[in-house]
Structures are given as C-alpha cells and as structure tokens.
What does this fold into?
Amino acid sequence: MSYERNTTDSAVRRQQDTARSTLSYTLRNQQSVSVQARWSHGNLTGGDETSFLLAYTIPFRLPVSKKTSVGSLKGRVFDQESSRRQPLPRVILRLNDAWAVTDRQGEFLFPALRPGKFLLRVDAASLGGKHLTAALLPVLMEIRKGQHLVLDLGVITAANLTVRVAVAPLSAVNTATNSIATVSSGAGALPGSGLLTPASPINAPCEGVIIELRNGQETLQAYTATDGRASFDHLRPGPWTCKVRDNHLPAYHYVETPETKLLLAPGESRELAVRVLARQRTIQFIDSGTVE
It folds into this structure.
C-alpha cells in the first residue's frame, strides 16, 4: 500500500491525495492473480475517483540463442587507489556513437556491437574534476563476430606540476672563485683578472620558454607566462621527463638543467624551479697600443 499528497503553490492552491493498494497471489504453476486499486481526491475536482484493475498472469518460456553476428563489451570502473578497488557508479562511457553508464557496482555493458573498430572514451566530468583513468584514453578496440570483451578501468587522482624558469643571481654563476671578469693572457692582457660574466637581472623570470613533458605515451607542451611559470594540470601519476628548451632566453644565457626526471604521486602538486645561468665568456684583445 502507498499514500501520497501533492500540493501546488500557485494563485489557486491545489491539493491532491492519492492512495494505491496491490494484492497478488502466485499459484504453484507460477501463474498469478493480482488486484490493484487506486483512489484519488482533489480539492478542485470536487469529488473522489476510484479505479480497480484485475490481472491474471501466465508465464511462458521462449527459447532464444545468442547472435553470433555481433559482439559485446562489458567491464568495470573502480577506484585504483582504494585497497578493495571500490566501484564507481554513474561514470559515462562512449564507444563511437553508443553510450553506457556504470551501475552501483561500477559495471557497464555495450550489449550488441557490430564487428568493426571502436574508440572507447570516458566522460571526464563524470569522474570528477580531480580524477582520470589510469590508462590513456581514448583507446582503439576491435570487435569481432561473436566476441565478448571484458575491460576493467582504474581511476586515480590526477597530479599537478608547475615549472618556473628564471635567471639565477649573478653570484650563483662563479661562487667558487668569486670572480666575475678575466682577460686571456696575451699581448695587452690585464694582470690579475678572471672570467667575465655578463651582467644579468637577479631572479628575472623567463617568458615564452617552451616546457615539454613526456611519459612515453603522452607529450605535453606549454609556454612560460610573464612570471616565468608554466602549469600542467590533470597529469597522469607516474614517471615523467621535463625538458626545458633554450628558446626566448636572454642573450649569452643557458639552461642549467635542460632535462629533469620526475616521479609524480597521485594527487601530488609539485613545483620545479629551473635556473638560467649567464654564459661565461673570455675577453681577448685583438689589438694593442697606448692610450693617450
């Protein structure tokens, strides 16, 4: 039995009460008899409405067989970071023009697929803003006649990386000798001089430098902004290689560490500082004489 009341707030307040009742009995041969009754009352209709339904159900069996001309794909979406691989419901998947949604057990099914090649995608919004599949998607799949594929998809928390490229202070270039200028020996050389390092801004950010990230499957690129930073969001955790190209650097400067190996953990946010150093140059006199 069930009872409900619906009230509508409007210029004319409307209220309706509804009651339903069902009584069923199943015989030994699995046939059943059921009686359903419905009663409703509305304050605007000015009367009661009552209806009855009597049903007799006879089940029967119809032999069927699987079609061998089509295939299927089923699987499960789960949280890869949890110890019990917790299922993820309401995840939306797309296989070419077909769609599927995971149930409470995280399971999905594409029941009848014509033979051919398909691209499997997962709607990123249905995973949540901080998660992504552990495997790189979309993935190309081939369905054959009568083939029933099973695919499990793990979901992990994405990582973030910020790379900052800036010119290092001048003192960091030759801290061992503490000298900033020298002249090569030869005619007209000035005694007691060291290596010459051009003057450069202290911690000046480098704009427009290309930052490249690679993990063997994906290659991502970004330019540094006016503050010298380039951000990479929604990264797949694991090993990455960060390469800083030497474009848009100040004259006579170079990247101290052009390539860096990184291991990003799920949910990690890391900042990588890359120094740009002034290139040491030697002054050599090509002529000599007396200054009058």
